[in-house]
Write a structure and sequence with these properties.
By secondary structure, this protein is an alpha+beta fold. The chain folds into 2 domains: about 230 residues, 3-Layer(aba) Sandwich (Aminopeptidase); about 80 residues, Peptidase M42, domain 2 (Elongation Factor Tu (Ef-tu), domain 3, Beta Barrel). Helices cover about 25% and strands about 30% of the residues. Strands 1, 2, 3, 10, 11, 12, 13, 14, 15, 16 and 17 form an 11-stranded mixed sheet that branches. A hairpin with a 5-residue loop joins strand 4 and strand 5. Helix 1 packs across helix 5 and helix 5 crosses helix 9.
């Protein structure tokens, strides 16, 4: 499957944090032709194993997304909702949404709300019903909803909700397809509940007990007007080799190996340092007695909004770098 088409397919699948069943089944089907073994653990992580005799290498891309959870049904049929992960409600107003059962609606602010001081409890989901009884026939407290916006291609860029982190899931699937003979014992993990505190990767890493761990995730950029220099990467400059985020300092040997492979294989790369936010690598690094951990990041604009943007050339560079590390000669710790 062509890379944009794969991203388009994955971003359209339902899978907010804690309810990843649909996206998990989709990924499992796509990975099956290239895997020796596919398992799902108690948390719901999907673990795709490609057997080898060398060091254990764990790649992790989270398959969950941010979303909404219904907390109250009002007499007029409107739904109040809380966050699943970091929903930026001011940037999400008047965005189409979709419930798990397929019902569509809009995330909207109250008419009286001050948009400059907008609070989440001043917003609601409008699913187009006439009253509470009709709403309750379609939804109950605890049901979830996600952005309902399709992926689109804009020149070299892809614009879509949930590039965080479905674009990384696409990268891992594409790399898995390209890896033929690897000296390493490979685990491609599609983790759950990253948006709720990096929960899935923690248990997956404990079970796998990897020698090396690489998180594949989006990263904040420094290439938009008024940027506050919260990141170091830019769209169109290649895969971003993570140095540091708020969850870890990457192991210098992993950073050096990724940059060495990029130079050898003419893969465009840049360095990734962000001051806020974390990835699965933070949980992987500190599992058991510790893991040689790092990250391969996709520079992405407008993260967590309904219109995230990434460069397809950067995405291809990330696929190549994941595949290169998967097949590299790595020392046993």
């Amino acid at each position: 499957m062509e890379l944009f088409e794969l991203i388009q397919t994955l971003t359209a699948a339902y899978g907010p944090a804690g309810d990843e069943g649909e996206i998990r089944d989709l990924i499992a089907g796509l990975a099956q032709p290239y895997a020796d073994e596919i398992t799902t653990d108690v948390m719901g992580n999907l673990i795709v194993h490609k057997k080898g005799n060398g060091p254990k290498v764990m790649f992790s891309a989270h398959m969950d997304s941010i979303g909404f959870m219904v907390t109250r049904v009002e007499k007029e049929g409107y739904l109040r909702a809380g966050r699943l992960g970091g929903i930026p409600h001011k940037k999400a107003v008047c965005t189409p949404v979709r419930l798990k059962n397929g019902r569509r609606g809009v995330f909207a602010p109250e008419e009286k709300a001050d948009m400059g001081q907008l609070k989440l409890d001043e917003c609601y989901l409008d699913i187009g019903v006439k009253d509470e009884a009709e709403a309750r026939s379609l939804v109950q407290v605890g049901d979830t909803a996600v952005y309902d916006v399709p992926a689109r291609q804009c020149g070299q860029n892809v614009i879509s909700p949930y590039l965080d982190d479905r674009i990384a899931c696409a990268i891992q699937l594409a790399a898995l397809e390209r890896v033929k003979d690897s000296p390493n014992d490979l685990y491609f993990v599609f983790s759950v509940q990253e948006e709720l505190g990096i929960r899935g990767a923690k248990t997956a890493a404990w079970a796998i007990d990897p020698d090396y761990g690489i998180a594949v995730d989006v990263t904040t950029v420094d290439d938009t007007p008024g940027s506050e220099k919260s990141g170091t990467s830019r769209l169109g400059k290649g895969a971003a080799v993570k140095i540091k985020d708020n969850s870890l300092m990457c192991h210098p040997q992993v950073v050096a190996k990724l940059e060495e492979l990029a130079q050898q294989q003419n893969i465009p790369v840049q360095r990734d340092i962000i001051q806020m936010g974390g990835t699965d690598a933070g949980a992987i690094q500190s599992t058991r007695a510790g893991v040689y951990a790092g990250g391969i990041s996709i520079p992405t604009r407008y993260i967590h909004t309904p219109q995230e943007m990434a460069d397809l050339g950067d995405t291809e560079a990330c696929v190549r770098l994941v595949a290169a590390f998967a097949q590299a000669q790595l020392d046993r710790p």
